[in-house]
Design goal:
single chain, 99 residues, 4-stranded mixed β-sheet, alpha+beta, Double Stranded RNA Binding Domain, 4 strands
């Protein structure tokens, strides 16, 4: 599994990238054929609201792609929300395939 973390409009802290990479390693518990994971961290400066940190996760697996996007006050919180939603998507897809 290849993990690619991209930060738009800012330089991501090394701790943040390590945290994301470590957390994404847990995805192999839910799907064993993950090819690539793309994470995009972005600042939404247009709205000027409290929730201006965006985390997008795209997971590539054979015959399917999963995508989630979350906005929150911090990148960690945005990533956590997106990660939880991603796990739910993967579980739902596997249940449909098993049925």
């Amino acid at each position: 599994m290849t993990v690619h973390v991209q930060a738009l409009h800012f330089d991501a802290d090394k701790k943040l990238v390590e945290y994301i990479t470590k957390k994404l390693q847990k995805l192999t518990q839910y799907h064993d054929r993950i090819i690539k994971v793309d994470v995009i961290l972005n600042l939404d400066n247009v709205k000027h609201t409290i929730k201006d940190k965006i985390a997008e996760i795209r997971v590539h697996v054979p015959r399917a792609d999963f995508f989630v996007k979350s906005t929150s006050k911090s990148f960690e919180a945005s990533f956590e929300e997106a990660f939880d939603a991603l796990v739910q998507q993967i579980k739902k897809k596997k249940e449909r395939l098993a049925a």
